[in-house]
Predict the 3D structure of the following.
Amino acid sequence: MLVRKETFRVREFRLHCGVTLPEVAVGYESYGTLSPARDNAVLICHYFSGTSHAAGRYSPEEALPGYWDAVIGPGKPFDTTHCFVLSVDSLCNLNVKDPRVVTTGPATVNPATGTPYGMTFPPVAIRDFVEVQRLLLDALGIQRVVAVAGPSMGGLQALEWAIAYPERVARMLSVTSVASLGPWTLMMPGHAATEAIRLDPRWNGGDYYGKAEPTEGLVLALKIVSAIARCPAWADATYGRRPADPAAPPDSSPTGRFLIEAELDALARTRAALMDANHYLYLARANAAYEPGSGLFPVEEAFRRIRARCLLLPCRSDLFLPPTETVRLAAALERAGVTVTLAQLASDGGHLAGVLEIEKAADTLRAFLAR
């Protein structure tokens, strides 16, 4: 599929924290055709470091398709011959320097000052992402979705959708996600990664726009997150203990590195070139602070609001959001009377399997969507 990025703007957008922004803008993509009755829409919510590029390519020359292309398209589980699939950039999207990403956040120019907001930008919440998506659906005339789905942070958004607007969601699919981040994730990689940014002298309290940016802190944050988003079995099978440079092995050179070290660093630097450190901090806090119902309802009451059929799909090797937490979520939903299917993504790919190996769950997704 060839796709293009569209822009959606909202004026006077009131954030969950109570602050009203004069305008927010997000990018979005769609795949398939919206039916005349507007009753065939599926909403895909992206993960922490992702964008709305969920499927297809922007041009025939593009090397890689969107991250869930394996399950979105003609004849795939999210079948675009029948469904209209929609995906939206988050506020404070990490990839703000990507020319195809449209997002409002700390790097955005504050119209009142003519300079980037920086750390004066108000805090954002998962609920804010849902509200922007809701306004886009309203603008498109879509009152109810066939499903809302997403991996990791996308799963948090899908859960919040089912709680906030139960009458508008028929199915909720949460992949490698949980109810809220547990202490392990808050500590490592959460706290460790954000501290890497704050300890970079160039971060300067978030005031670095127009100056040298805290690239090294951001790179280290990305390396911390990327390492824990994988797992030992994946690292053993993919890299082992091979040196980056056979002529300068780690055991004979003080600067020698293992291949896994060198490639982790190279990947982080490539990704950091499209990202903003303040956006990382804001997005990390939104994830860390999330509770089902966004504090508007007690958690037990929030779960009782859900009317959607739910599919929870953890990965057995996930160290980032451990599958035991997803099992607890399934039990809590069942106690609240929610219809829940708990399956498993059988992979040694760790947390990232929910993005990079989603095709392994194609049959599970197809069966759930057909019910």
Q: What stands out?
A: The mean pLDDT is 97.
